[in-house]
Structures are given as structure tokens and as C-alpha cells.
Amino acid sequence: MKIEKNKSLKLLNTFGIDVIAKYFVEVCSVDEFRELCRDPEFVRTRRLILGGGSNVLLTGDFDGWVVKNSIPGISIAAETGGEVTVKAGAGENWHDLVMWSIERDYAGLENLSLIPGLTGAAPIQNIGAYGAEQKDVFDQLEAIEIGSGDKVILKAGDCAFGYRDSIFKRQWKNRFFITSVSFKLAKLSSPNAHYRYRAEYGNVRAMLDEMKVQDLSLKAMSEAVCRIRRAKLPDPKELGNAGSFFKNPSIPQAQFEALASKYPEMPHYPQEDGRIKVPAGWLIEQCGWKGKKVGRAGCHKTQALVLVNYGGATGREVLEFAESIRGSVTEKFGIELSSEVNII
Ligand code: FAD
Ligand code: EPU
After folding, report:
1. Could you tell which of 244, 286, 292, 299 is best to mutate to test the pocket of ligand 2, judged by most ligand atoms within 8 Å of the CB?
2. Which helix (H) or strand (E) holds 158?
3. Catalytic residue among 92, 110, 133, 340
4. pLDDT confidence of 191, banded at 50, 70, 90?
5. For residue 8, what is the domain's CATH number?
6. Contact present, 240 and 268 (Cβ < 8 Å)
């Protein structure tokens, strides 16, 4: 393992924020990480685990260890007639894992195509898109407890998955280094396969029609999702961003009714718990932020929920911009937005 000192993280986060890590190390195996855990200095010092850096906002130089997870490998851990358990190293690129599954006719990940980042981060915020979440197919994960260096296996019941949420963002924040994640996928080649595609979300069906798809397939579903995403979301290689900056808020029914009488056109989605989800992108757009630029930070022109770095912005600049947005949404609608992005 090569330990680097005073390393720039500019190319290691999709916001493209240029900060310095005091120590930086790339970990390519479980043993390498365990070796780090044997160093009391490492365990005592402030640490940041980094995957693809696509859900972090770095607000200053990092006075500690940044550990980039690059543990590779995709394998089949178990198989029955109709199901396969696919185990992926935490350092595998997420979209590559989705493509790997689709090529083999393993179903369950296709709606999550083109989400940036690495597999090890998928359980952290329980990634989701187009009517699917990783928890729908999650089997288990393996991790190292940083304090003890012990290996643990965690099942879905341990992880408290929710909308863009898990125990790893709460009680167990910074406690574990995830080394692999396993997913249970349906084998479409099985003679008894009767898989239900999730095509009725947002404009997925309309895109499939535009693509003139007659028979649904994993490839077609993935392609439809990819086309919608490319049309809406900025490519971090061209414009620094971390996807949705805020979560979509869920508000109580009474608050919704009061707002709906004032804003009858407000999009809304009733939830199982009786609350009503309102798209944060709409709230932000109504406050006049869409397409606005303040200094080197801005609100994207086709997706108001995505904040961008027009080049050279500091993390603090982006954070201040986000705070202004949050403030005006609270003032106009009485709704508090909470960050989806991890502020470091
Ligand atoms: P990082 O940003 O590197 O890390 C995220 C958090 O996880 C950090 O707190 C980090 O410390 C922790 N972490 C990372 N790896 C490990 C590990 N091995 N062990 C322990 N902790 C770890 N997200 C969605 O859910 N749905 C979307 O549709 C979506 N679209 C996006 C579109 C764009 C253009 C962008 C830029 C981002 C989007 N995101 C989306 C957010 C992001 O892609 C996901 O959150 C992704 O899972 C982050 O992966 P990462 O490897 O980049 O994680
Ligand atoms: N909207 C606006 N103006 C905007 C953006 C959105 O009015 O500028 C309204 C529209 O009514 C639209 C609705 O918001 O119909 C929903 O917009 P969109 O379909 O673009 O989805 P989103 O709610 O903004 C969420 C996720 C995305 C995920 C998509 C698709 C969150 C915080 N974001 O976005 O995830 O890809 O749905 O499922 O839940 C991410 O987490 O980083 C992310 C990109």
C-alpha cells in the first residue's frame, strides 16, 4: 500500500472540489484494510472512506486519513433454479455491476443503471431510482469494523434501510468499512421465470414507447433509464455535481392540504405511512433558483435539485449556496429540506 501525503482530492470527487488530504491510501483487498486497522494511529485519527466521491461535498482540507476503496471482484456466491446471489467487491463500479448482471440475464438492478459511484457505497444511502432501491435485492454485506479490525456480515435487518437512508448514516456512521455487497437477482433464463419489470415509473413507459420497444427486456429497461438520466442530469465529467443535493421531503397530510389550496399544481406522491412526498426540485424551482448562478456555484438548468460547480468553486461556496436555497424553501413553503449529499 502506498501512503501519500498532502494529496489533492480534486479528481476523486464528482463536485471537483480541490481540497488536500493529509494522508491518502488506496485499499485493494480486505487484508490491506485490516493491516491499516492494526495501526493505532490510523484508528485514532479522523478518517474518510471514499468510493467514487459522487455523494460527498468536501468543505475543507481533510486533516486525517482518506481511504479510497478499490476492492475488486464479481462472483456468484450461490445459485438456485430461479435465483442467483451475486457478490461484488466494494470497489467495483456500480454501473459496471449492473451491466454485468444484465448481460447474464440476471434481473433486479436494471432500473438502477447509470448511478455513479462504487458498489460499496450503494447500501450507505440505499441508492434508488425509477421505482427501485438497492434494498429490494440486497442480500448481505461484508465489512470490517474499523475499531477492532473484525470482519462482520450484515443482513438487511441490521441495516435499517429507508429512503436515501441506512444505519450507516446514523448510529453506525464511520464505524464500518464495507468490503463487499451481495444481491439476490432473478434468473430470467430459468424456465419458471415470471419477472415483473418496473416500467410504470415517471416517464419510463413513455421512453420505452419512444424507443419502439415491443417486448420488454433488461437491456431495454436499462437503456430507457439511461436515456432519461442523460437528458436530465449533468455529467460530472463536464459539470461538477453530486446528483440530487437534497432529499425529497415527506410532509404530514394537513400541511400538504394547506399548501395544496395555495399551490394546486404542486406535484405530490402519497406514501405508505400516510405522509405526502413533494419533489424538492419543484419547491426549489418555485423559489426562482433553477438555472441561477452565484459566484462559481449554481442550480442546474434542467434539474433544480442538482447543484453544480461551474469550475473552481470551493465546498464552502457550494454549501452557502445550498443554505440560501434551503432558507428560501423554508420561508416560502414552511418545509425544511435535508441534504442527501454527505457534507464533509
Ligand atoms: P462516495 O461519494 O465516495 O461516498 C458516499 C458515502 O458513503 C460517504 O459517506 C462515504 O464515506 C461512504 N462510503 C463509501 N464507500 C464506503 C465503504 N466501502 N464503506 C463504508 N462507507 C463508505 N444516488 C441515488 O441514490 N440515486 C440516483 O439516481 C443518483 N443519481 C446520481 C446522479 C449523479 C449525476 C451523481 C453525481 C450522483 C447520483 N447519485 C444518486 C448519488 C451517488 O451516485 C450515490 O450515492 C452513490 O452510491 C455514491 O457512491 P460513491 O462510491 O461515489 O460514494
Ligand atoms: N421537478 C420540477 N423542477 C425541477 C426538477 C423536478 O418541478 O427542476 C419536479 C417535477 O414535477 C418532476 C418531479 O419534480 O416530475 C420529479 O423529478 P425527477 O423525476 O427528476 O426526480 P427527482 O425527484 O428530482 C429523484 C431522485 C433521483 C432519481 C430520480 C429518478 C431524490 C432526492 N432524487 O429525483 O436520485 O434519479 O428521482 O428516480 O430522491 C440522487 O439521489 O442523487 C438522484 C439523482
Report:
1. 244
2. helix 156-159
3. 340
4. confident
5. 3.30.43.10
6. no
* pLDDT tens-digit map of 206-250: 999 999 999 999 999 999 999 999 999 999 999 999 999 999 999
The answer, yes or no, to whether any atom of ligand 1 lies below 6 A from the CB of 236, is: yes
Structural domain containing residue 280:
240-343
Q: Are residues 150 and 299 in the same domain?
A: no
Q: What span, in angstroms and rounded, lies between the C-alpha atoms of 210 and 223?
A: 12
Strands 62-69 and 56-57: unpaired
Mean pLDDT over 276-298 rounds to 98
Q: List the residue whose alpha carbon is closest to atom 1 of ligand 1.
A: 53
Q: Which residues pair with 276 in a beta bridge?
A: 251, 270
pLDDT in tens, 7-36: 999 999 999 999 999 999 999 999 999 999
* pLDDT tens-digit map of 108-167: 999 999 999 999 999 999 999 999 999 999 999 999 999 899 999 999 999 999 999 999
- Please give the Cα distance from 175 to 214 (Å, whole number): 48
User: Residues 171, 212: one domain?
Assistant: yes
Residue nearest to atom 40 of ligand 2 (CA): 244
Q: CATH number, domain at 331?
A: 3.90.78.10
For the CA of 203, the closest atom of ligand 2 is 19
Query: Do 285 and 311 lie in a common domain?
Result: yes
Three-state DSSP class for 20?
Answer: strand
The answer to whether residue 340 is catalytic is yes
- Look up 316 and say whether it is catalytic: no
Separation CA 78–CA 344 (nearest Å): 38
Mark whether 79 and 61 lie in a shared domain. Answer: no
